[in-house]
Amino acid sequence: MMEIPTEGQHNHPLEAVRQELRKVIVGQDEMITLLLAALLSGGHVLIEGVPGIAKTMTARLLAAAIQADFSRIQFTPDLMPSDVIGTSVFNQQTATFEFKKGPVFSNLVLIDEINRSPAKTQAALFEVMEEQQITVDGNTYKMDFPFVVLATQNPIEQEGTYRLPEAQLDRFLFRIRIHYPALAEEQQILKKFRNDFTNTVTGTVQAVLSKTELQALRRQTENCTISDELLDYIALLVHTTRNHPDLFLGASPRASLAIMKTAKAIAVMGGRDFVTPDDVQQVAYPVMNHRILLTPDKELEGATTDMVIRDIIEKIPVPR
Q1: Are residues 114 and 249 in the same domain?
Q2: Does residue 196 sit in the same domain as residue 288?
Q3: Which residues pair with residue 149 across a beta bridge?
Q4: 105 and 166 belong to one structural domain
Q5: Residue 307 sits in a domain of what CATH number?
Q6: Fewest beta carbons within 10 Å, which of 101, 121, 138, 258?
Q7: Distance (Å, rounded) from C-alpha 261 to C-alpha 214?
Q8: Could you tell me the pLDDT band of residue 1, with boundaries at 50, 70 and 90?
């Protein structure tokens, strides 16, 4: 998978957020870059990795760095939809039902082990992730800005888990796969926390970006220039997944929009007001890797979705 470069990002306001996260997080630069791109794009992120590699910590520290409210929901097999979105409670004093908001009403919502709950509970997220609102008993409740869902799952342990519906996977802007740190990075982690039994190091992350500033950055991202040739290129990349012999399921138009939005975000973070083909290719992997399905034969051969995406990118001419 291509590395997303960080060169030229020192002039962007989100670089201050990056530096705050780097005070604690070691060796996850690509994840941090994609999380910041998701903030600019207004999308949700699925983080996939084994336990103990700072998925939850990164989400909590990101909320602290942007002055956002944070809530964490631990998904379990017995979790009900009302435990996520809230429920109507009868008020005896007024003889009326009042809606008590659930933990999803926050700015940055971490859903830990999202594949631990059955489809009924996962479906409770469909409306709020797509439309940023909850409808209960005929009443609609809007989410405050910003609203971003970060969900985690363990790709190794499958006992007691439920496969995420394709409709829900499609609502995630990115799927970020993270791995164990390199030896040098793990040595750095140990030295950073060797005298920190009470997690005081994590408290060093300061709020460096307000919600108002984030709104302005999103408007700047929306106004980033992308040529018609690049839009046609994005459409062709996604369309090819629907006719590729190695794929059982191709990417949806939502993937095209996600590539366009996140390519703009990468461009803006790089200090540019225009999108390049490199921006498009760099975000194509995390945008599409969870939206396409391999044929059974290719799965048996050990192929991966990233291999298919790479094949498509290499075969389609790049606009000049």
Answers
A1: no
A2: no
A3: 109
A4: yes
A5: 1.10.8.80
A6: 138
A7: 15
A8: very low
